[in-house]
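Show me a record, fold above all:
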Amino acid sequence: MKNVVILGAGTAGTMVANHLGRRWPQGWSLQVVDPETEHLYQPGLLFLPFGARDERKLRRPRARTLGRGVAWVRQGVQRIDVQRREVWLTDGAKLPYEFLVIASGAKINPDMTPGLAEPKGAQRIHNFYTLDGAVRLREALADFPGGRLVLNIAEMPIKCPVAPLEFLFLADAFFQRRGQRRQVELILVTPLEGAFTKRVCNTKLRYLLEGKGIKLQADFALAEVDGEKREIRSYDGRSVAYDLLVTIPVHTGASYIGHSGLGGEDDLNFVPTHRHNLQAIGQERIFALGDATDLPVSKAGSVAHFQSSVVAENLLRAMRGQELRGDFDGHVNCFIESGFGKALLIDFNYELEPVSGRFPVPGLGPFTLLGESRINHLGKLGFRWLYWNLLLPARPLPISNRMSLAGKRIEEAEMHARPA
């Protein structure tokens, strides 16, 4: 029997597996490799530092998230032997494949920044990109007496690039509700030229930082963290002091990507991937999606959703010897929590900056693009139900993986010069 192997059962890998499970041809087996016993709803981590205590609802047993016809191999991966078409597992077994899907995600690596992973001053250094980290940060904020709270992004790319901004917006509301805002200085320190990764967002949404009194330190390339002196330093000699540091460490792909010769030239272990058909560059039998790729799109859950149907379709076409389809256009759709029960929604792709309009029904919404609203906030909260019940099981939705231009207001300034 011919074998298809998916590496990783996070959002991307699970959705691809469940898409395929409904259309799986006879004579082929489908295996998903992942050592973790639980599936984590990562967007929920954002709310834990500010008092949410629903971490149990953020996790589900892995076996419940994978559909029929999908075999779960509960092992880690050592490396991929591309020549022999084998996946070497941590228990010493070798798993052969005809086609391989890499959905190994991204992980934080604090040890890549001097001082960040060292114990000195660690009680004042936190992150919310892991479940344990978000819970510890909740305890730290509950006891925070005031002072300078610095959020630092070490390097791009990161998972969910708007999450650091959402954290600061929610922190502003959190301290205001506690009557403590005047005693807390909020500072965003970023390697980017501005607060947002997209130019249009920087232009149209900078009022959010200014109105909330959040200071910005841009073009800050983090070199080291001094936990004893409580300061971060950049390569150009600048330093920023803190009383509490919320860090977004360097993100990388799975280490076995590099060990297998499938990473790019930057040693971050993200898979060079064709931007439209999602085939690994130079590898006819390998596809990649989600946070595992080097594509110039946000490492966000919506991207994995839009990519999953494209990978599933192209994998089936490859199995039949048919030409691949280039149906992924870089579509990203993302809520941005802005505090006090409001949120924004942005929609963009490879060619377009975030546009104005209504989503998902042109002219009707109910969600507003590039504007704050209560309904956007409710949409963000409701996304959890959608995730567990529709997205992860890969059930059909009336939203195309390609960005719809219907009802969108596209200004000339929102057009990209980036090639397709």
User: Anything to note?
Assistant: The CA atoms of residues 331 and 403 lie 5 Å apart.
